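As a warm-up, study this chain.
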Amino acid sequence: MDEKQQRLNKLNRLVQQGIDPYGHPFPDTESIQHIKADFSEKENVELVHKIGGRVMAFRDHGKSVFLDIVDETGRIQAYIKESTANPDDYHFFKEVVDVGDILGLKGPLFRTKRGEITLEVKEWHFLAKALLPLPEKWHGLKDIEQRYRYRYLDLLVNPTVKENFVKRSKMLEHIRNYLYKNDFLEVETPVLQSLAGGALAKPFITHHEALDMDLYLRIAPELYLKRLVVGSIYKVFEVSKNFRNEGISTIHNPEFTMIEIYWAFQDYRAMMKLTEEIIKYVVKQLLPDGKTVWEGVTIDFLTPFTAMEFRDIFYQKVGTDMEELRDLNQAKRVLKAESISLNRPLTWENIVDKLFKEKVESQLINPTFITGYPVELSPLAKERADNPKYTDRFELFIGGMEIANGFTELNDPFIQRDRFLAQLKNREKGDVEAHQVDEDYLLALEYALPPTGGLGIGMDRLTMVILGLNSIREVILFPHLRPPDKI
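Now compare it with the structure written out below.
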Protein backbone atom coordinates (compact mmCIF):
# COMPACT_ATOMS: atom_id res chain seq x y z
CA MET A 1 0.00 0.00 0.00
CA ASP A 2 1.49 3.37 -0.96
CA GLU A 3 1.82 6.14 1.56
CA LYS A 4 -0.94 8.28 0.12
CA GLN A 5 -3.39 5.41 0.52
CA GLN A 6 -2.26 4.88 4.11
CA ARG A 7 -2.95 8.53 4.80
CA LEU A 8 -6.34 8.32 3.11
CA ASN A 9 -7.16 5.43 5.41
CA LYS A 10 -6.22 7.57 8.40
CA LEU A 11 -8.38 10.37 7.05
CA ASN A 12 -11.33 7.96 6.85
CA ARG A 13 -10.59 6.84 10.41
CA LEU A 14 -10.88 10.46 11.54
CA VAL A 15 -14.19 10.87 9.72
CA GLN A 16 -15.53 7.67 11.30
CA GLN A 17 -14.76 9.12 14.72
CA GLY A 18 -16.66 12.31 13.86
CA ILE A 19 -13.50 14.38 13.47
CA ASP A 20 -13.28 16.81 10.55
CA PRO A 21 -9.80 16.18 9.03
CA TYR A 22 -9.85 19.74 7.66
CA GLY A 23 -11.07 21.21 10.91
CA HIS A 24 -12.31 24.51 12.14
CA PRO A 25 -10.46 27.76 12.84
CA PHE A 26 -8.16 27.67 15.85
CA PRO A 27 -7.96 31.34 16.89
CA ASP A 28 -5.94 33.02 19.64
CA THR A 29 -2.86 30.91 19.04
CA GLU A 30 0.48 32.16 20.35
CA SER A 31 3.55 32.34 18.16
CA ILE A 32 6.14 29.70 18.93
CA GLN A 33 8.87 32.30 18.92
CA HIS A 34 6.99 34.35 21.52
CA ILE A 35 6.20 31.56 23.97
CA LYS A 36 9.76 30.22 23.84
CA ALA A 37 11.23 33.68 24.37
CA ASP A 38 8.97 34.31 27.37
CA PHE A 39 9.45 30.87 28.96
CA SER A 40 10.52 30.93 32.57
CA GLU A 41 11.55 28.01 34.79
CA LYS A 42 9.19 29.44 37.40
CA GLU A 43 6.25 29.40 35.02
CA ASN A 44 3.09 27.98 36.53
CA VAL A 45 2.71 24.44 35.17
CA GLU A 46 -1.01 25.06 34.99
CA LEU A 47 -0.51 27.93 32.51
CA VAL A 48 -1.89 26.59 29.23
CA HIS A 49 -0.47 27.70 25.90
CA LYS A 50 -2.19 27.37 22.56
CA ILE A 51 -0.24 26.83 19.35
CA GLY A 52 -1.03 25.88 15.78
CA GLY A 53 1.50 24.44 13.38
CA ARG A 54 2.70 21.68 11.11
CA VAL A 55 4.16 18.38 12.33
CA MET A 56 7.71 18.24 10.95
CA ALA A 57 8.94 15.24 12.97
CA PHE A 58 7.19 12.38 14.80
CA ARG A 59 9.21 10.26 17.26
CA ASP A 60 7.34 7.33 18.77
CA HIS A 61 8.89 5.97 22.00
CA GLY A 62 6.10 3.53 22.74
CA LYS A 63 4.56 5.09 25.84
CA SER A 64 5.32 8.63 24.68
CA VAL A 65 5.55 10.60 21.46
CA PHE A 66 7.70 13.62 20.72
CA LEU A 67 6.76 15.96 17.87
CA ASP A 68 8.45 18.91 16.20
CA ILE A 69 5.84 21.59 15.52
CA VAL A 70 6.62 24.51 13.23
CA ASP A 71 4.70 27.73 12.66
CA GLU A 72 5.75 30.82 10.71
CA THR A 73 7.97 32.00 13.57
CA GLY A 74 9.88 28.90 14.61
CA ARG A 75 9.93 25.34 15.92
CA ILE A 76 9.00 23.82 19.28
CA GLN A 77 8.98 20.30 20.63
CA ALA A 78 5.64 18.86 21.74
CA TYR A 79 5.17 15.82 23.98
CA ILE A 80 2.28 13.49 24.70
CA LYS A 81 2.46 10.45 26.95
CA GLU A 82 0.15 7.54 27.63
CA SER A 83 0.27 7.82 31.43
CA THR A 84 -1.18 11.33 31.56
CA ALA A 85 -3.46 11.16 28.52
CA ASN A 86 -6.57 9.13 28.04
CA PRO A 87 -5.13 5.78 26.78
CA ASP A 88 -7.66 5.49 23.96
CA ASP A 89 -7.04 9.09 22.95
CA TYR A 90 -3.27 8.55 23.07
CA HIS A 91 -3.33 5.48 20.83
CA PHE A 92 -5.76 7.14 18.42
CA PHE A 93 -3.38 10.10 18.19
CA LYS A 94 -0.56 7.76 17.23
CA GLU A 95 -2.75 6.02 14.67
CA VAL A 96 -3.87 9.09 12.74
CA VAL A 97 -1.12 11.72 12.97
CA ASP A 98 1.57 11.94 10.26
CA VAL A 99 4.45 14.24 9.50
CA GLY A 100 3.00 17.11 7.49
CA ASP A 101 -0.33 17.27 9.33
CA ILE A 102 -1.40 20.61 10.78
CA LEU A 103 -2.52 20.45 14.41
CA GLY A 104 -3.82 22.76 17.11
CA LEU A 105 -2.29 21.96 20.51
CA LYS A 106 -2.90 23.12 24.08
CA GLY A 107 -0.82 22.51 27.17
CA PRO A 108 1.81 23.80 29.62
CA LEU A 109 5.50 24.25 28.92
CA PHE A 110 8.38 22.48 30.61
CA ARG A 111 12.07 21.93 30.00
CA THR A 112 13.35 18.42 29.30
CA LYS A 113 16.45 16.91 30.91
CA ARG A 114 18.31 17.90 27.75
CA GLY A 115 17.21 21.48 28.29
CA GLU A 116 14.71 21.75 25.45
CA ILE A 117 11.58 23.83 25.94
CA THR A 118 8.64 21.52 25.28
CA LEU A 119 4.86 21.79 25.21
CA GLU A 120 3.06 18.95 26.98
CA VAL A 121 -0.03 18.16 24.93
CA LYS A 122 -3.19 18.15 27.03
CA GLU A 123 -5.57 18.80 24.15
CA TRP A 124 -5.19 18.39 20.40
CA HIS A 125 -7.25 19.29 17.34
CA PHE A 126 -6.94 18.25 13.71
CA LEU A 127 -6.73 21.31 11.47
CA ALA A 128 -5.61 19.77 8.15
CA LYS A 129 -4.60 16.27 7.09
CA ALA A 130 -1.60 15.99 4.73
CA LEU A 131 -2.25 13.31 2.11
CA LEU A 132 1.26 13.36 0.69
CA PRO A 133 4.51 13.01 2.64
CA LEU A 134 6.97 15.86 2.82
CA PRO A 135 10.29 15.22 1.07
CA GLU A 136 12.62 13.50 3.51
CA LYS A 137 15.78 14.87 1.94
CA TRP A 138 14.98 18.00 0.00
CA HIS A 139 18.39 19.23 -1.14
CA GLY A 140 17.89 22.05 -3.60
CA LEU A 141 21.20 21.55 -5.36
CA LYS A 142 20.13 18.04 -6.33
CA ASP A 143 16.84 19.07 -7.90
CA ILE A 144 16.66 22.81 -8.39
CA GLU A 145 13.85 22.53 -10.93
CA GLN A 146 11.62 20.77 -8.40
CA ARG A 147 12.41 23.35 -5.74
CA TYR A 148 11.17 26.15 -7.98
CA ARG A 149 8.21 24.23 -9.34
CA TYR A 150 6.96 23.21 -5.89
CA ARG A 151 8.00 26.29 -3.95
CA TYR A 152 5.59 25.53 -1.11
CA LEU A 153 7.60 22.38 -0.34
CA ASP A 154 10.85 24.29 -0.70
CA LEU A 155 9.65 26.80 1.90
CA LEU A 156 8.50 24.04 4.24
CA VAL A 157 11.71 22.07 4.36
CA ASN A 158 14.43 24.61 3.54
CA PRO A 159 14.41 27.27 6.29
CA THR A 160 17.04 29.41 4.55
CA VAL A 161 14.77 29.76 1.50
CA LYS A 162 12.02 31.22 3.64
CA GLU A 163 14.54 33.47 5.41
CA ASN A 164 15.66 34.86 2.05
CA PHE A 165 12.12 35.76 1.05
CA VAL A 166 11.52 37.37 4.43
CA LYS A 167 14.67 39.44 3.84
CA ARG A 168 13.43 40.39 0.37
CA SER A 169 10.19 41.65 1.89
CA LYS A 170 12.15 43.61 4.50
CA MET A 171 14.32 45.13 1.77
CA LEU A 172 11.26 46.45 -0.01
CA GLU A 173 9.90 47.77 3.27
CA HIS A 174 13.18 49.61 3.96
CA ILE A 175 13.23 51.16 0.47
CA ARG A 176 9.64 52.33 0.84
CA ASN A 177 10.36 53.77 4.29
CA TYR A 178 13.41 55.61 2.97
CA LEU A 179 11.36 57.18 0.18
CA TYR A 180 8.43 58.00 2.49
CA LYS A 181 10.80 59.76 4.89
CA ASN A 182 12.07 61.82 1.98
CA ASP A 183 8.55 62.87 0.97
CA PHE A 184 8.11 60.70 -2.12
CA LEU A 185 4.55 59.73 -2.97
CA GLU A 186 3.81 56.12 -3.93
CA VAL A 187 1.37 55.66 -6.82
CA GLU A 188 0.01 52.98 -9.16
CA THR A 189 -0.04 53.30 -12.93
CA PRO A 190 -1.57 51.04 -15.62
CA VAL A 191 -0.26 47.54 -16.21
CA LEU A 192 -2.30 47.25 -19.41
CA GLN A 193 -1.10 49.95 -21.80
CA SER A 194 -2.14 50.96 -25.29
CA LEU A 195 1.54 51.44 -26.20
CA ALA A 196 4.53 49.63 -24.74
CA GLY A 197 6.88 52.40 -23.70
CA GLY A 198 9.52 53.45 -21.22
CA ALA A 199 12.20 50.93 -22.24
CA LEU A 200 13.68 49.08 -25.20
CA ALA A 201 12.11 45.63 -24.93
CA LYS A 202 9.73 43.23 -26.65
CA PRO A 203 6.30 43.36 -24.97
CA PHE A 204 3.59 40.80 -24.33
CA ILE A 205 0.44 41.55 -26.33
CA THR A 206 -3.15 40.83 -25.33
CA HIS A 207 -6.55 41.90 -26.67
CA HIS A 208 -9.41 43.72 -24.94
CA GLU A 209 -12.69 42.38 -26.31
CA ALA A 210 -15.01 45.22 -25.26
CA LEU A 211 -12.79 47.92 -26.74
CA ASP A 212 -11.67 45.65 -29.59
CA MET A 213 -8.08 46.78 -29.25
CA ASP A 214 -4.69 45.27 -28.59
CA LEU A 215 -3.05 46.13 -25.28
CA TYR A 216 0.43 45.53 -23.94
CA LEU A 217 1.59 44.36 -20.55
CA ARG A 218 3.82 47.21 -19.45
CA ILE A 219 7.54 46.93 -19.94
CA ALA A 220 8.03 49.97 -17.67
CA PRO A 221 5.88 52.56 -15.88
CA GLU A 222 8.18 55.43 -16.87
CA LEU A 223 6.03 57.44 -19.26
CA TYR A 224 3.02 57.42 -16.93
CA LEU A 225 5.10 58.49 -13.94
CA LYS A 226 6.55 61.39 -15.91
CA ARG A 227 3.02 62.42 -16.85
CA LEU A 228 2.44 62.71 -13.09
CA VAL A 229 5.46 64.99 -12.76
CA VAL A 230 3.89 67.17 -15.47
CA GLY A 231 0.80 67.15 -13.22
CA SER A 232 2.92 68.58 -10.34
CA ILE A 233 3.57 65.38 -8.36
CA TYR A 234 7.21 66.27 -8.10
CA LYS A 235 8.53 63.38 -5.97
CA VAL A 236 6.90 60.14 -7.04
CA PHE A 237 7.65 56.42 -7.10
CA GLU A 238 6.04 53.10 -7.95
CA VAL A 239 6.84 49.51 -7.08
CA SER A 240 5.84 47.96 -10.37
CA LYS A 241 5.48 44.54 -11.92
CA ASN A 242 6.94 44.73 -15.42
CA PHE A 243 6.76 42.19 -18.24
CA ARG A 244 9.21 41.62 -21.08
CA ASN A 245 8.92 38.91 -23.70
CA GLU A 246 12.54 37.87 -23.50
CA GLY A 247 14.57 34.78 -22.70
CA ILE A 248 14.72 33.12 -19.29
CA SER A 249 18.09 32.83 -17.55
CA THR A 250 19.69 33.14 -14.13
CA ILE A 251 19.26 36.94 -14.39
CA HIS A 252 16.09 37.19 -16.50
CA ASN A 253 12.47 36.37 -15.70
CA PRO A 254 9.69 37.61 -18.01
CA GLU A 255 7.86 39.05 -14.98
CA PHE A 256 9.97 41.12 -12.59
CA THR A 257 9.74 43.89 -10.01
CA MET A 258 11.08 47.42 -10.47
CA ILE A 259 11.12 50.46 -8.25
CA GLU A 260 10.87 53.57 -10.41
CA ILE A 261 11.48 57.02 -8.90
CA TYR A 262 11.12 60.51 -10.38
CA TRP A 263 12.27 63.74 -8.77
CA ALA A 264 11.55 67.10 -10.32
CA PHE A 265 14.23 69.81 -10.61
CA GLN A 266 17.02 67.23 -10.25
CA ASP A 267 19.42 65.59 -12.70
CA TYR A 268 21.17 62.26 -13.16
CA ARG A 269 23.84 63.12 -10.60
CA ALA A 270 21.21 63.54 -7.90
CA MET A 271 19.69 60.20 -8.92
CA MET A 272 23.10 58.49 -8.74
CA LYS A 273 23.48 59.85 -5.23
CA LEU A 274 19.96 58.70 -4.34
CA THR A 275 20.65 55.23 -5.75
CA GLU A 276 23.78 54.83 -3.64
CA GLU A 277 22.04 56.13 -0.53
CA ILE A 278 19.07 53.77 -0.92
CA ILE A 279 21.25 50.70 -1.42
CA LYS A 280 23.53 51.54 1.49
CA TYR A 281 20.52 52.21 3.70
CA VAL A 282 19.05 48.79 2.87
CA VAL A 283 22.37 46.99 3.25
CA LYS A 284 22.92 48.46 6.72
CA GLN A 285 19.61 46.93 7.84
CA LEU A 286 20.51 43.43 6.57
CA LEU A 287 24.30 43.05 6.59
CA PRO A 288 26.03 44.14 9.82
CA ASP A 289 29.41 44.68 8.12
CA GLY A 290 27.98 45.86 4.79
CA LYS A 291 29.60 42.97 2.91
CA THR A 292 28.38 39.94 1.02
CA VAL A 293 30.02 37.19 -1.01
CA TRP A 294 29.04 36.98 -4.66
CA GLU A 295 30.41 34.11 -6.77
CA GLY A 296 33.38 33.83 -4.40
CA VAL A 297 34.13 37.57 -4.43
CA THR A 298 33.52 39.83 -1.43
CA ILE A 299 31.46 42.90 -2.28
CA ASP A 300 31.67 45.84 0.11
CA PHE A 301 28.56 47.98 -0.29
CA LEU A 302 29.60 50.65 2.19
CA THR A 303 32.65 51.93 0.32
CA PRO A 304 32.06 54.70 -2.24
CA PHE A 305 30.68 53.36 -5.51
CA THR A 306 32.99 53.61 -8.55
CA ALA A 307 32.04 55.65 -11.64
CA MET A 308 33.33 55.24 -15.20
CA GLU A 309 32.39 56.63 -18.61
CA PHE A 310 30.69 54.26 -21.05
CA ARG A 311 33.07 55.03 -23.90
CA ASP A 312 36.16 54.60 -21.71
CA ILE A 313 35.24 51.23 -20.26
CA PHE A 314 34.02 50.01 -23.65
CA TYR A 315 37.45 50.72 -25.11
CA GLN A 316 39.16 49.19 -22.08
CA LYS A 317 37.25 45.90 -22.20
CA VAL A 318 36.50 45.50 -25.93
CA GLY A 319 39.76 46.97 -27.25
CA THR A 320 38.02 49.10 -29.86
CA ASP A 321 36.74 52.66 -29.79
CA MET A 322 33.00 52.29 -30.22
CA GLU A 323 32.89 55.24 -32.66
CA GLU A 324 34.99 53.16 -35.08
CA LEU A 325 32.15 50.64 -35.18
CA ARG A 326 30.00 53.09 -37.13
CA ASP A 327 31.87 51.55 -40.07
CA LEU A 328 29.73 48.40 -40.32
CA ASN A 329 32.50 46.44 -42.02
CA GLN A 330 34.76 47.11 -39.06
CA ALA A 331 31.89 46.25 -36.71
CA LYS A 332 31.36 42.90 -38.44
CA ARG A 333 35.07 42.09 -38.11
CA VAL A 334 34.97 42.81 -34.38
CA LEU A 335 31.84 40.69 -33.88
CA LYS A 336 33.44 37.82 -35.80
CA ALA A 337 36.69 38.09 -33.83
CA GLU A 338 34.71 37.93 -30.58
CA SER A 339 32.49 35.07 -31.87
CA ILE A 340 29.41 37.17 -31.12
CA SER A 341 26.25 36.90 -33.20
CA LEU A 342 23.50 39.51 -33.32
CA ASN A 343 19.83 38.53 -33.52
CA ARG A 344 18.66 42.12 -33.99
CA PRO A 345 19.12 44.44 -37.01
CA LEU A 346 22.79 45.25 -37.66
CA THR A 347 22.72 48.88 -36.49
CA TRP A 348 25.52 50.68 -34.68
CA GLU A 349 23.56 50.94 -31.44
CA ASN A 350 22.65 47.24 -31.45
CA ILE A 351 26.27 46.28 -32.09
CA VAL A 352 27.58 48.50 -29.29
CA ASP A 353 24.87 47.31 -26.91
CA LYS A 354 25.65 43.64 -27.64
CA LEU A 355 29.41 44.07 -27.23
CA PHE A 356 28.91 45.95 -23.98
CA LYS A 357 26.64 43.21 -22.61
CA GLU A 358 29.01 40.42 -23.67
CA LYS A 359 32.41 41.95 -22.90
CA VAL A 360 31.87 44.54 -20.17
CA GLU A 361 28.92 43.84 -17.88
CA SER A 362 30.13 40.54 -16.43
CA GLN A 363 33.35 42.18 -15.21
CA LEU A 364 31.59 44.88 -13.18
CA ILE A 365 31.38 43.06 -9.84
CA ASN A 366 31.76 45.80 -7.22
CA PRO A 367 29.19 48.63 -7.35
CA THR A 368 30.06 50.64 -10.46
CA PHE A 369 28.20 53.48 -12.16
CA ILE A 370 28.62 53.65 -15.93
CA THR A 371 27.77 57.12 -17.26
CA GLY A 372 27.48 58.88 -20.60
CA TYR A 373 25.49 56.42 -22.71
CA PRO A 374 25.16 57.05 -26.46
CA VAL A 375 21.96 58.84 -27.41
CA GLU A 376 20.96 55.93 -29.69
CA LEU A 377 20.75 53.68 -26.62
CA SER A 378 18.89 56.26 -24.54
CA PRO A 379 15.83 57.57 -26.40
CA LEU A 380 14.27 59.08 -23.25
CA ALA A 381 17.40 60.66 -21.72
CA LYS A 382 18.55 64.26 -22.04
CA GLU A 383 21.59 64.82 -24.25
CA ARG A 384 24.79 66.18 -22.75
CA ALA A 385 25.26 69.92 -23.03
CA ASP A 386 28.89 69.53 -24.17
CA ASN A 387 28.35 66.58 -26.52
CA PRO A 388 24.85 65.79 -27.82
CA LYS A 389 26.00 62.37 -29.12
CA TYR A 390 25.89 61.20 -25.48
CA THR A 391 23.37 61.50 -22.68
CA ASP A 392 23.19 62.33 -19.00
CA ARG A 393 22.46 58.72 -18.18
CA PHE A 394 23.91 56.12 -15.82
CA GLU A 395 23.51 52.46 -15.09
CA LEU A 396 24.64 50.80 -11.87
CA PHE A 397 26.23 47.37 -12.11
CA ILE A 398 26.86 44.97 -9.25
CA GLY A 399 27.78 41.31 -9.54
CA GLY A 400 28.06 41.64 -13.32
CA MET A 401 24.40 42.69 -13.63
CA GLU A 402 22.59 45.91 -14.34
CA ILE A 403 20.92 46.82 -11.05
CA ALA A 404 19.71 50.37 -11.71
CA ASN A 405 19.20 52.73 -14.62
CA GLY A 406 18.70 56.47 -14.40
CA PHE A 407 19.08 59.72 -16.25
CA THR A 408 18.19 63.33 -16.59
CA GLU A 409 14.84 63.08 -18.35
CA LEU A 410 14.48 64.44 -21.85
CA ASN A 411 11.82 67.16 -21.53
CA ASP A 412 12.08 68.82 -24.94
CA PRO A 413 9.01 67.65 -26.94
CA PHE A 414 10.68 68.38 -30.31
CA ILE A 415 13.80 66.33 -29.60
CA GLN A 416 11.68 63.60 -28.04
CA ARG A 417 9.61 63.37 -31.20
CA ASP A 418 12.76 63.07 -33.30
CA ARG A 419 14.03 60.29 -30.99
CA PHE A 420 10.73 58.43 -31.30
CA LEU A 421 10.84 58.73 -35.10
CA ALA A 422 14.40 57.37 -35.14
CA GLN A 423 13.16 54.42 -33.07
CA LEU A 424 10.28 53.98 -35.51
CA LYS A 425 12.78 53.54 -38.36
CA ASN A 426 14.44 50.78 -36.35
CA ARG A 427 11.06 49.09 -35.84
CA GLU A 428 10.48 49.23 -39.59
CA LYS A 429 13.80 47.41 -40.00
CA GLY A 430 12.46 44.62 -37.79
CA ASP A 431 13.69 45.69 -34.34
CA VAL A 432 10.77 44.63 -32.12
CA GLU A 433 12.47 46.18 -29.06
CA ALA A 434 12.55 49.70 -30.50
CA HIS A 435 10.37 52.34 -28.84
CA GLN A 436 6.98 53.23 -30.32
CA VAL A 437 5.85 56.80 -30.98
CA ASP A 438 3.69 57.81 -28.01
CA GLU A 439 1.65 60.82 -29.13
CA ASP A 440 -0.13 61.16 -25.78
CA TYR A 441 3.19 61.39 -23.96
CA LEU A 442 4.43 63.96 -26.47
CA LEU A 443 1.26 65.97 -25.79
CA ALA A 444 2.03 65.86 -22.05
CA LEU A 445 5.54 67.19 -22.74
CA GLU A 446 3.99 70.15 -24.58
CA TYR A 447 2.44 71.19 -21.26
CA ALA A 448 6.02 71.27 -19.87
CA LEU A 449 7.87 68.63 -17.89
CA PRO A 450 10.23 70.35 -15.43
CA PRO A 451 13.88 69.26 -15.37
CA THR A 452 13.60 65.84 -13.76
CA GLY A 453 15.81 63.00 -12.62
CA GLY A 454 14.55 59.44 -13.09
CA LEU A 455 15.67 56.14 -11.62
CA GLY A 456 14.70 52.48 -11.91
CA ILE A 457 16.04 49.81 -9.54
CA GLY A 458 15.62 46.11 -10.29
CA MET A 459 14.32 44.65 -7.04
CA ASP A 460 14.98 41.03 -7.98
CA ARG A 461 18.60 41.53 -8.97
CA LEU A 462 19.31 43.84 -6.05
CA THR A 463 18.03 41.11 -3.72
CA MET A 464 20.25 38.57 -5.48
CA VAL A 465 23.47 40.48 -4.96
CA ILE A 466 22.76 41.62 -1.40
CA LEU A 467 21.90 38.06 -0.32
CA GLY A 468 24.70 36.51 -2.41
CA LEU A 469 22.37 34.34 -4.51
CA ASN A 470 23.32 33.41 -8.07
CA SER A 471 19.91 32.94 -9.70
CA ILE A 472 16.92 35.24 -10.04
CA ARG A 473 14.73 32.20 -9.39
CA GLU A 474 16.02 32.16 -5.81
CA VAL A 475 14.38 35.54 -5.14
CA ILE A 476 11.10 35.12 -7.07
CA LEU A 477 8.60 32.94 -5.25
CA PHE A 478 7.07 31.47 -8.39
CA PRO A 479 9.47 31.96 -11.32
CA HIS A 480 8.35 31.11 -14.82
CA LEU A 481 9.35 27.58 -15.83
CA ARG A 482 9.00 25.44 -18.91
CA PRO A 483 5.98 23.08 -18.55
CA PRO A 484 7.04 19.59 -17.36
CA ASP A 485 5.86 17.99 -20.61
CA LYS A 486 8.17 20.28 -22.60
CA ILE A 487 11.34 19.75 -20.61
